[in-house]
Specification:
binds zinc ion, eight-stranded mixed β-sheet, alpha+beta, 27 helices, five-stranded mixed β-sheet, 33 strands, single chain, globular, binds ligand BES
C-alpha cells in the first residue's frame, strides 16, 4: 500500500518527459503467487534534450533483472526501490533497449490495482497509476507506446489469454502450458493496458462498421452465466452504431472484448480493445436485474465503448485533464441514453443525480474545479464534479454554439488531436476555431469551483407593455478560492401565457438573448422584453441549461401553473419539485418548532392529477411523484440539519398525498400491472416505475403491508420484487410481512451474490436507530465479504450515504461503525475506503450535537496508524 508522501502535484509543474517509450513488449509468465514479468522497453531521448538520469515509476516492486541493450546493468549504474527505478547514466545514444524483470503476486493483491486475481481469473486495473505495480515505467498518460504482449500460463488454469489490440499468435508449449501474443497498433498510455487470463465463458457477436469492416465482439463471463450477457451484447452493438451516427466515429480494431469480473473497484474500465467490467454492469435478466440495472448496463457499456475515441485515440496529457475524457464521455453516454430511451425522463434523472452528488461536493470541503490544479492522490479526483459537472460543461458548449457548430468542433477535435495526449485548452480551442467566438469567460466553468447562483425577480408594466427580469449572479466561495470571477451562464427560458402558449415579444434589451437562451455574463442584467401586454409566467433554466441554483421570486400560483402547463418537460417537473421541496422545508421547520406539519391540499391534488395524466409518459409521472430525498431536502435547508425531523416531514407529506388520492391511486395501480412477457424497454420500465411508486403510497394506507406483501409474492421480475421488498422493509420495518419477505428473498437468492447485494442494500437503508445494529449483524452474514467492493458498497455504502436517520443516529453509533469499517476496508483496499469516507463530507451542515460526533469519527480515522495516501487525503480535506 502506498502511504502518504505528503507530496502535492500541481498543474503548473507539468513538464514533458525527457524520455519517450515508443515500443513496449511485455512477457507474462502467470502464477498466482509469483508472476514473472519481463518488460522490453524501447527508450528514446527526446530530440534536443541532454542525457539525464532516467527515472521510472514503481509501486511495491522488486527488481529481479535489468539490462541495457542486451547487457546486464552493473549495480552501480542504477538505484531500485519499490517505488522507483533510476538509471543513473543512460546510454548516450538517442535510442536504447531496456529490459526489466519483476515478480508480482496477483493472489495477494487486495487493492485491486495492477494485476490481481478475482474469482480465480487474472485481471488488471491500471488507471490511474496501477501499471507501475506491474513493472517500472514512465507511468503517465502523455507517454504513448505501441504494445506487444505475450502471456504464458498452464492451459487448465487459464485456457483464455487476452490483452489489448488484435490477436497475433497462440500455441501450446510443453507440460500443459500455452501462450498467446497480442499486438495493439495504436500507441496508448500505460493506464489503458490490460490483461485477462482464466477460465471464462464467451458470448460472441459481430458488428459491421460504417466502412464495412467486420469486428468480432466477445463478452466473457463466469462459466454458466453466458445467458446473462445478452442485454450487454445488444447494448454494445447499439453503442457502436450510435457513435457512427451521432459523432461519425468508427471502431478501429478487428476485435472488441469485454470481460466481467466480480471484484472491481469501479464500474468499468475502457482498456483499449479489452474493457474490464464489474460483473454487476454486465450480467442481467428479468429474474435477477431491475430496470435500473438494465439502464445502468446500457449506459456503462456505452460509456466505456465511447472512450475508444474520447480517452483512448485522444487521451489526456496529465491527470489534471481527467475531465477531458470523463466529462466528455459522460456527456456522450447521456446523449446515447436519451436517444435510446426518453430524452426528458433521462434529463430529469441526470439532474437529480447531479444535485444529489455534485452539488454537495461543490458546496462542501471537497469542492474543486472541473479541472483541478492540485492533487495529493489522483484516485480521489474521479468525482461527481469531474464527471457530472464536466458533462454539463460540454452540454453548455453545445447550447451556446448550437448543434451544428458543436458537431463541427467535435469533428475538428478528432481530426486535430487523434493520437495525441491533449488538454482542456486544446478542447476549447477547436470550438473557438469553428465558431469564431471567444470562450475565455466560459472557460471559468473548468477552472472555478462552486455552484453559481442566480437570483431572479420579474415585473410587468401593463401600460408600457413591458416585462422585466432582474437577474443577479453570484458564485459562493469554496476552499482556497475565496474570490470568484463572473461566469458566462446560458440560461434557457420561456415566457408562458395564460393559455400555456409561448408569449412573443417585439424587442429585448439588457442581455444577449438568442434562440431561447439568455446569456448571463455580468453580475446584474436587467432584461427588458417589450410588446407584452399580459403578465406571463417565466420558466427558467429550461432543460437545466446550466448547472446552477436558482432563487426565483415567483408567486406560488405561477409555480402551480408551470407545474401543470410548462411545455418544457424538465421545467415542468422542476416546478412541481420546487413546490414539494418548499412545502417539505416548511414542514421541517414546523416540526422543529414542535408543531404538526401543515401541507397545502393543492399539492396532493396536483400529484393526483399528474399521476393520472395519460398525456404524460408513465416514467415521467413516476419521477414527479417520487418526493425529494431526505438528503435533497437537507441540502436545500443548508445548515442545522436534524435528519429525524426531515424524515418526519417527508413521511407526513407522503401520507397526505396517499390519503388525498386513496380513491384514484388503487385503480391506477391496478391498471398498470404487466401484461404479456417481460421486456426491459424504457416504456415498460416506466409503467413498472409508476406502479411501484403508487405501491409505495398505497402501502401507507390501511392494509398497506398486506398489499405490498401481495405485490412481492406475485412479482414476476426483480424490479417489482425488489421494489415491494423495499416498501415492506422501509415502510413496515419489523412487521411479519417484512420479515417473511426478507427471509424468502434471502432463501431464493442465497447463491447469487449480485442479487444478495440488493438484500443488503434494502436492509442497510431501513430508516431509524435500529439499523446500525442490523448492519453490524449483516457484516457477519456468510455472503458478506469486506474484501469485495460490491458487498462493501451495498451494505456500508448504502448505510452511510443513503440512510440519513440510521447513519446520523443522534448518539453517534452510526459514525462509529462507519469509521471502524472504513479503516478495516482500508487495510486491503485504500481506494474503496477513501470513496466510502466521502459520506461524511457534509458534516458541517448537521445540527451541533451530530456535528461534534461526526467530527470525532473523522478525527479517529485521521489518527489511525499508516493511513494510506487515499484516505488521509479525503479525511484531512474534509476536516480542513
Ligand atoms: N475510466 C473510468 C474507470 C476508472 C475510474 C478507472 C477511476 C480508475 C479510476 C471509466 O471510464 C469510468 O468512468 N467508469 C465509471 C462508470 C461510468 C459510466 C461513469 C465507473 O466506473 O464508475
Ligand atoms: Zn469513463
Amino acid at each position: 500500500m502506498r502511504t502518504d508522501t505528503g507530496h502535492v502535484f500541481k498543474l503548473e509543474d507539468y513538464r514533458p518527459c525527457d524520455y519517450l517509450i515508443p515500443r513496449t513488449s511485455l512477457d507474462f509468465r502467470l502464477s498466482p503467487d509469483a508472476t514473472h514479468v519481463t518488460a522490453l522497453l524501447t527508450i528514446e531521448r527526446r530530440a534536443g534534450v541532454a542525457a539525464s538520469p532516467l527515472v521510472l515509476d514503481g509501486d511495491g516492486l522488486t527488481l529481479l533483472g535489468i539490462a541495457v541493450d542486451g547487457h546486464t546493468l552493473p549495480a552501480s549504474d542504477y538505484e531500485a526501490t519499490p517505488d522507483r527505478l533510476t538509471i543513473l547514466k543512460p546510454p548516450a545514444a538517442q535510442r536504447f533497449e531496456l529490459r526489466l524483470e519483476t515478480e508480482i503476486a496477483p493472489s495477494r493483491n487486495e487493492a485491486l490495482m495492477g494485476l490481481y486475481r478475482s474469482n480465480n481469473v487474472y485481471c488488471t486495473q491500471c488507471e490511474a497509476e496501477g501499471f507501475r505495480r506491474i513493472t517500472y515505467f514512465l507511468d503517465r498518460p502523455d507517454i504513448l507506446s505501441v504494445y506487444t504482449v505475450r502471456i504464458e500460463a498452464p492451459h487448465n488454469e487459464a485456457p483464455l489469454l487476452l490483452s489489448n489490440g488484435n490477436p497475433v499468435e497462440s500455441g501450446t508449449l510443453g507440460s500443459g502450458r500455452h501462450y498467446a501474443v497480442w499486438h495493439d497498433p495504436f500507441p496508448k498510455p500505460s493506464y489503458l493496458f490490460a490483461l485477462v487470463a482464466g477460465a471464462l465463458g464467451k458470448v460472441a457477436g459481430s458488428f459491421t462498421t460504417m466502412s464495412g469492416r467486420e469486428v468480432e465482439l466477445g463478452i466473457y463471463v463466469e462459466p454458466g452465466k453466458e445467458q446473462l450477457a445478452g442485454y450487454a451484447m445488444d447494448a454494445l452493438k447499439r453503442s457502436m452504431q450510435w457513435d457512427e451516427e451521432a459523432f461519425g466515429r468508427e471502431y478501429d480494431l478487428d476485435v472488441f472484448n469485454i470481460v466481467a469480473v466480480s471484484d472491481f473497484n469501479m464500474g468499468a474500465m475502457e482498456n483499449k480493445g479489452l474493457n474490464v467490467f464489474n460483473d454487476k454492469y454486465v450480467l442481467a435478466d428479468e429474474e435477477t436485474a431491475t430496470d435500473a440495472d438494465f439502464a445502468n448496463i446500457e449506459a456503462i457499456i456505452a460509456h466505456e465503448y465511447f472512450h475508444n475515441w474520447t480517452g483512448n485515440r485522444i487521451t489526456c496529457r496529465d491527470w489534471f485533464q481527467l475531465c477531458l475524457k470523463e466529462g466528455l464521455t459522460v456527456y456522450r453516454d447521456h446523449e446515447f441514453s436519451a436517444d435510446q430511451r426518453s430524452r426528458s425522463v433521462k434529463r430529469i434523472a441526470e439532474v437529480r443525480t447531479l444535485r444529489a452528488h455534485q452539488f454537495p461536493e461543490d458546496q462542501g470541503p471537497l469542492a474543486h474545479p472541473v479541472r483541478p490544479r492540485r492533487y495529493r492522490e489522483i484516485n480521489n479526483f474521479y468525482t461527481a464534479t469531474v464527471y457530472e459537472k464536466g458533462s454539463e460543461v460540454v452540454r453548455m458548449i453545445r447550447t451556446i454554439l448550437g448543434p451544428e457548430t458543436f458537431r463541427a468542433g467535435m469533428d475538428l477535435y478528432f481530426e486535430r488531436h487523434d493520437g495525441e495526449a491533449a488538454t482542456i485548452e486544446d478542447f476549447l480551442k477547436v470550438f473557438e476555431d469553428v465558431s469564431g467566438r471567444d470562450l475565455a469567460q466560459f472557460a471559468l466553468w473548468y477552472h472555478q469551483a462552486g455552484t453559481p447562483n442566480l437570483t431572479v425577480s420579474s415585473a410587468h408594466n401593463a401600460a408600457a407593455k413591458e416585462f422585466t427580469l432582474e437577474i443577479e449572479q453570484s458564485v459562493p466561495p469554496t476552499p482556497s478560492e475565496s474570490r470568484k470571477r463572473l461566469m458566462h451562464i446560458p440560461l434557457a427560458f420561456g415566457l408562458v401565457g395564460a393559455n400555456g402558449k409561448p408569449v412573443a415579444w417585439t424587442a429585448v434589451e439588457g442581455a444577449m438573448v438568442d434562440d431561447g437562451v439568455i446569456h448571463i455574463r455580468k453580475r446584474r442584467h436587467t432584461v427588458r422584453f417589450s410588446g407584452i401586454s399580459q403578465r406571463p409566467s417565466v420558466s427558467l433554466n429550461r432543460g437545466f441549461s446550466a448547472p446552477i441554483t436558482l432563487s426565483v421570486q415567483q408567486k406560488a400560483d405561477d409555480q402551480f401553473f408551470l407545474a401543470a402547463h410548462d411545455s418544457d418537460a424538465f421545467a415542468r417537473w422542476q416546478a412541481f419539485n420546487t413546490l414539494l421541496t418548499d412545502a417539505l422545508i416548511a414542514a421541517f421547520r414546523q416540526i422543529l418548532g414542535g408543531k404538526e406539519p401543515v401541507f397545502a391540499a393543492r399539492l396532493a391534488e396536483l400529484a393526483g392529477r399528474i399521476a393520472g395524466d395519460e398525456t404524460l409518459e408513465p416514467a415521467y409521472r413516476a419521477l414527479a411523484l417520487s418526493l425529494p430525498g431526505e438528503a435533497d431536502i437537507a441540502r436545500d435547508i443548508g445548515k442545522g440539519i436534524d435528519p429525524d425531523a426531515i424524515f418526519a416531514a417527508r413521511e407526513a407529506m407522503a401520507r397526505m398525498i396517499a390519503e388525498a388520492n386513496r380513491e384514484a391511486f388503487p385503480a391506477l395501480y391496478e391498471s398498470l400491472a404487466d401484461k404479456g412477457p417481460f421486456s426491459p424497454d424504457a416504456a415498460s420500465a416506466g409503467r413498472r416505475a409508476l406502479r411501484n411508486i403508487l405501491l409505495d403510497y398505497l402501502s401507507l394506507l390501511p392494509g398497506g403491508a398486506g398489499l405490498a406483501a401481495g405485490h412481492f409474492n406475485a412479482a414476476t421480475n426483480m424490479t417489482d420484487r425488489a421494489a415491494a421488498l423495499a416498501v415492506l422493509a422501509h415502510r413496515h420495518p419489523g412487521t411479519a410481512e417484512a420479515e417473511e419477505a426478507l427471509a424468502a428473498f434471502e432463501a431464493r437468492y442465497r447463491g447469487d451474490a449480485l442479487v444478495l447485494d440488493k438484500w443488503f442494500q434494502i436492509q442497510a437503508g431501513v430508516p431509524g436507530a435500529k439499523t446500525v445494529e442490523k448492519v453490524r449483524e449483516l457484516m457477519r452474514h456468510p455472503a458478506f465479504s469486506i474484501a469485495n467492493p460490491n458487498r462493501v458498497r451495498s451494505l456500508i455504502g448504502t448505510f452511510s450515504s443513503a440512510n440519513q436517520t440510521g447513519f446520523h443516529r443522534p448518539d453517534g453509533e452510526g459514525y462509529r461503525l462507519f469509521a471502524e469499517t472504513v479503516l478495516e476496508v482500508e487495510k486491503r483496499n485504500p481506494q474503496v475506503a477513501a470513496r466510502l469516507a466521502t459520506a461524511l463530507r457534509s458534516w458541517r451542515s448537521l445540527e451541533p450535537g451530530r456535528q461534534t460526533k461526526a467530527r470525532q469519527a473523522l478525527l479517529d480515522m485521521a489518527k489511525a496508524e499508516n493511513l494510506s495516501a487515499d484516505l488521509r487525503d479525503i479525511v484531512e480535506r474534509t476536516l480542513a
